[in-house]
Amino acid sequence: MTLMSNIISLENVSTVYEGERRPAVQDVNLSVKKNELVYIVGPNASGKTTLLETINGLLPIFKGKLSVFGLDAKNQGKKIRREIGYVPQDFMVNPGEPFTAYDVVMMGRYGKIGFLNRPNEIDDVKITETMRFLDIEELAPRPMGKLSGGQQQKVMIARALAKDPKILLLDEPFSNLDPESREKIPSLISRIHKERELTTIIVTHDIYGMLEACRRVVVMREGRILDDSTPEEALIRMEASR
User: Fold this and answer.
1) What is the second-level CATH architecture of the domain 1-83+167-242?
2) Fewer CB within 10 Å: N-end or C-end of the chain?
3) What is the pLDDT of residues 209-233, one digit of tens each?
4) Long-range contacts of the stretch 62-65 (C-beta < 8 A, 24+)
5) Quick check: 177 and 153 in contact, CB under 8 A?
6) Could you tell me the sign of the dihedral formed by the alpha carbons of 224, 229, 230, 232, in that order?
């Protein structure tokens, strides 16, 4: 696989949630190259999160074809998910939750080794290295529910990275953060994307604080892709449509 080859490819993909009749994403065509950083933007209920869930194999495809790493997602979904780190939008933990930050990061490791396998010393080292990389080692023994929003976000990113993924999917990573974390999380994600050489897709409703490394913005509305262009072009068109 060359540096600029497509690592994700959706061809006329439509996805419907169970019990729904209208597709949440409809006739989507999208290709993402290896090591690319892509923003997916649009209003609420535009299909952004659904698109991430589709790529991550969390929703079945009833029309079209999705391939990741050249593998057909319908037949190789489990294998594909082992190589994807996913940070969902709604992850805030109940203050009474007994899991520590270390436990939560280890959950991500299970996504790599399988839930029926017990972690070993290699996995413990990987968790420690990942938390050190994100500068959150001191959070390891603390209850997840007692952490701030920004700290929980870092732990969830660590959980995704614990899998040693090739693809990182982030759903609204800049929302529900305190002002200090809102300044630090973008630079952290930028560093992760660069140093880990990850293919990174970020879903957000706000592109005005866009990471400098982003050179591509995909605009969605009502489950369809309306635009796929540079950040400068996307901003001009979005301003014009207001």
Assistant:
1) 3-Layer(aba) Sandwich (3.40)
2) C
3) 677 778 899 999 999 999 999 888 8
4) 62/14, 62/15, 62/16, 62/23, 63/12, 63/13, 63/14, 63/23, 63/27, 64/10, 64/11, 64/12, 64/13, 64/14, 64/27, 64/28, 65/9, 65/10, 65/11, 65/12, 65/13
5) yes
6) negative
Q: Which of 26, 20, 10, 11 is nearest to 223 (CA)?
A: 26
Cα of 56 vs its chain's centroid, Å: 9
Residue 68 to residue 78: CA distance in whole angstroms: 11
Chain position carrying tokens 């080292």 = 125
For strand 84-87 and strand 37-41, is the pairing parallel, antiparallel, or unpaired?
Answer: unpaired
What does pLDDT average to over the chain? 88
Question: What is the domain partition of the chain in residue ranges?
Answer: 1-83+167-242, 92-165
Integer Cα distance of 165 and 200 in angstroms:
10
